[in-house]
Structure formats: C-alpha cells, structure tokens
Amino acid sequence: MVSHSGHLFIVSAPSGAGKTTLCKLLSERFPEILFSISFTTRPPRASETDGIDYYFIPKDEFVKGIENSRWAEWAEVHDNFYGTSSEFLDRKLAAGHDILLDIDVQGMLQILRRYPDSITIFIMPPSPDVLRSRLESRSTDTQDVIATRLVNAEKEMAAKDRYRYIIVNDRLPEAAAELISIYEAFRQRRVQ
Ligand code: 5GP
C-alpha cells in the first residue's frame, strides 16, 4: 500500500439531501481542502461549468480510462459514468493535501479498499417526503429523472451504515456544524 500524508474525506448522500451545499460550506471554512473534481459522461446542467463542477467527457474517453486504470474508482450512476482521477489523488495526497470527494456508495467502497484511512460521511435527508419535495422543487430535472433518483436514493440510504459518520440534514446550519466538527476533530488529532 502507498503511504500518503494527506487524507481523503468521502461524502455521499442521495441527491436532494443537501450534500453539495454542505460540501461548499466545508470548503469555505477550510479552503485548504482540495475538492476532487469528478469526470462524468452526463451532460452538464445549465448551472454547471466544465472543469469546476465536473470534467464532462465523452463515453469512449471514459471507457478508455477504465482500460488504462485512469480511475481510482468509477461507477455507473443514474445511467451515466462517473470516475475519480487516481493521478490527482495520488499526487495531491503525496503533497500532504486533504481531499474531499463527493461520490456515491459504490465509489466509496472502492476508495476504501485502496485508501483504508479515508474518513467516510453519509448525509441523510430528514425524511423521504422532504427528499421528494426537495427534488421536485429543483426545476432542473424531469419527472422521469426525479423518479429514478428517488429509487436510487432508497438504495443509497440502505448502505448508510457502511459509513463512519452519518449526518441528518434536517436543519442546514446544524448539519454544517457537524460536518465542520468532524473535520476539525480529525485535524486536531493529526497535529498532536
Ligand atoms: P449528479 O449527477 O447529481 O451530479 O451526481 C449523481 C451521483 O453521482 C451523486 O450521488 C454523486 O455523489 C455521484 N458521483 C459524482 N461523482 C462521482 C464519482 O466520481 N464517482 C462516483 N462513484 N460517484 C460520483
């Protein structure tokens, strides 16, 4: 196993649980944490920018990446491919950076096998009804997409006990404080 001085923080959640907002708040509080920008074959949403939210790549390039071991983990989620660059992780970890990964459960399990010291955090919506209404109020997705996301959310939530920490995002400020305190506690332990 390769030894690294930085650490990985993996955050997973069903879509609509508020994960993106929580990860942004963590990054604002600790700008030194690097965000791992995933590669995906999904088309960009109107609000997304290539190279910031994701690297949007064609499917043949993604598949070539699988063959060339370019991905530290990869998964098919909601009929699209998503992957994490192993070159980015290894280079930044070796330089001592902590890295935040926003990936799904399948990806978390692959990363844990490769980087067993990773800190894993699952974000839960307060209830299935709240999740549904959050997804419906995002006008970006069609009814079909929302239905697929709800089915996938059930599957993802069934795996929550495989994570070291579970945060219920009932009220955003409290959920953000919990996420920040997990990172702070971890950092304090490391510098002692
Ligand atoms: P979205 O399409 O809504 O941005 O993301 C859909 C799902 O894909 C989310 O659960 C997100 O965490 C997951 N995801 C994003 N990037 C990656 C990745 O690189 N690897 C894996 N395994 N999942 C990812």
Search tags:
192 residues; alpha/beta; Rossmann fold; five-stranded parallel β-sheet; four-stranded mixed β-sheet; 20% strand; binds guanosine-5'-monophosphate
Protein model, in words:
- This protein is of the alpha/beta class.
- The chain has a single domain (8-191), classed as P-loop containing nucleotide triphosphate hydrolases (Rossmann fold, 3-Layer(aba) Sandwich), CATH 3.40.50.300.
- The chain has helices at 19-29, 59-67, 86-94, 105-114, 128-137, 143-157, 172-191, and strands at residues 8-12, 34-35, 39-40, 55-56, 71-77, 80-85, 99-102, 119-124, 165-168.
- Strands 2-7-1-8-9 form a five-stranded parallel beta sheet, with helices on both faces. The protein has a four-stranded mixed beta sheet with strand order 4-3-6-5.
- Helix 1 (19-29) packs across helix 7 (172-191) and helix 5 runs antiparallel to helix 6.
- It binds guanosine-5'-monophosphate (5GP).
- Guanosine-5'-monophosphate binds next to strand 5, strand 6 and helix 4.
- Residues 12, 15, 38, 42, 73, 75, 77-78, 82-84, 102-104, 106-107 line the site of guanosine-5'-monophosphate.
Can I get a quick summary?
The chain is α/β, with parallel strands linked by helices and 192 residues long. Helix content is 44%, strand content 20%.
CATH fold-level name: Rossmann fold
Number of domains: 1
The backbone outline, from C-alpha atoms, is: globular
CATH homologous superfamily classification: P-loop containing nucleotide triphosphate hydrolases
CATH architecture annotation: 3-Layer(aba) Sandwich
Major sheet summary line: 5 strands, parallel
The distinct ligands, each listed once, are:
guanosine-5'-monophosphate
Output the structural class: alpha/beta
**CATH classification, class level:** Alpha Beta
Provide a count of the helices: 7
Order of helices and strands: EHEEEHEEHEHEHHEH
Biggest sheet, spatial arrangement of strands: 2-7-1-8-9
Estimated radius of gyration: 16 Å
Overall mean confidence score, pLDDT:
91
Catalogue the unreliable spans: none
Give the distance, in angstroms, between the N- and C-terminal Cα atoms: 24 Å
